[in-house]
Amino acid sequence: MHIKPLLQVASLKKHDITPIWLMRQAGRYLKEYRSLREKYSFLESCQNPELAAEISLQPYKRFSFDGVILFSDIMTPTIGMGVDLDFAPGPVLKKPIRTQKDVDFLTALSPEEHVPYVLKTLQILKKEIRPETSLIGFCGAPFTVASYLVEGKHSNDFSRVRKMMKETPAVLKALLEKLTDSFILYLKAQVLAGADLIQIFDTWAEILSESEYLEFAFPYEKKMVDALKSEIPVILFAKGSKKHIYNIQKVEAPIVSIDTSLTLKEAKDVFGSQTVLQGNLDPEILQNGSKERIREAVRKILAEMKGHPHIFNLGHGVLKATPTDHVSYLVDMVRDGI
Ligand code: 1CP
């Protein structure tokens, strides 16, 4: 029987190992990714299971991470729900969702029918990875996905979604409910297809005030985590770790990914020994730091987390100019425990 280090830490069984994987470990910083993307669009890459699996495996082949994450996007399941979406490079909608009628138009996701390619990608990956490697499924949290659906594209000020929070909160909540129910089914289907862990990404929780977080992010994150955590280890990444820490704690996710606004020591003091923490090397340091600077930052994190269940990761995704030798250096250091 092969032991999966990520699952051992996730189940609080072992505290003397530090598994590692990185958010956005597949992507533009890898030349093999860039060369595939010259031939295929981002959407084609997600919707073709052989291609998506190949992209997921690119960083694994180079760096031997403990986890392989499905190559897809937080927005892909919404295509199955009827959203006309493209990527340029971020998500862009033909017709943003602004009214109750727009919400009613969305169909509930039936994963086997609407996103079979995601499930197929996971099945391929499960066969391709070594038995000690964990397969990570994921999905966006309702608030973050709704932000793109309402804004229609990346927004710097989130004016449309803010307007909706103030003027038509019931419409936004209807959208969040619909996404929540669909994403629970989506994640359950990922579990059946072979995912060993799942991560929920709530990147834009960061823009919310405390009361807005409690109203528009928390209930939906909690409903998803509650529906899944008895079946599979769930990682919650809600950006804005510092400002939302006590409310994130109330979600009671078994694993919490911490961004760079908080030290892991601070997070550990809040969460205590029964919550696994993931994170939180600054992606800027990994990209731009000297090896000494990276080493110093990694040492600090490992020292803070000694004896506490910890999955090494970044505070956010890998940046696109990150040198690959910095990533190899990081993985070696974490493996050697220095
Ligand atoms: O090649 C390209 O230009 C496409 C860039 C790209 C990639 C590599 C996009 C478009 N999505 C992805 C993959 C992706 N996205 C993964 C794959 C698995 C991995 O290796 O980690 C995951 C988990 C995501 C999740 C995602 N997409 C998030 C949450 C995490 C985060 O980084 O905050 C968000 C906010 C998105 C939206 C999105 N999709 C793509 C882009 C460029 C963006 C960001 C747009 C913006 O800035 O608003």
Total E-strand runs? 9
Number of helices: 17
For the sheet with most strands, the description reads: 7 strands, parallel
The unreliable regions are none
Radius of gyration equals 19 Å
Q: Enumerate the strands of the largest sheet in spatial order, edge to edge or round the barrel.
A: 1-4-5-6-7-8-9
Give the tally of structural domains.
1
Explain what you see:
This protein has 338 residues and is of the alpha/beta class. The protein has one domain (5-336): Alpha-Beta Barrel (TIM Barrel). The chain is 53% helix and 12% strand. It has 17 helices and 9 strands. Strands 1-4-5-6-7-8-9 form a 7-stranded parallel β-sheet. Helix 10 packs across helix 11. The longest helix has 24 residues, at 169-192. The two termini are 28 Å apart. Coproporphyrinogen I (1CP) binds next to loops. Residues 23-28, 37, 42, 69, 71, 73-74, 87, 89-91, 138, 144, 154, 201, 203, 317 line the site of coproporphyrinogen I (1CP).
What features would you highlight for this structure?
alpha/beta, TIM Barrel, 7-stranded parallel β-sheet, 17 helices, binds coproporphyrinogen I
List the helices and strands and how they pair.
Elements lengths: L4 H6 L20 H9 L2 H6 L1 H15 L3 E3 L6 H5 L4 E3 L3 E3 L6 H6 L5 H4 L1 H13 L5 E7 L1 H10 L7 H9 L1 H24 L4 E6 L7 H19 L5 E5 L2 H11 L3 E3 L6 H8 L4 E6 L1 H6 L2 H14 L5 E5 L9 H13 L2
Helix pairs in contact: 4-8, 9-11, 10-11, 11-12, 12-13, 16-17
The structure holds coproporphyrinogen I.
The site of coproporphyrinogen I (1CP) has 22 residues, from loops.
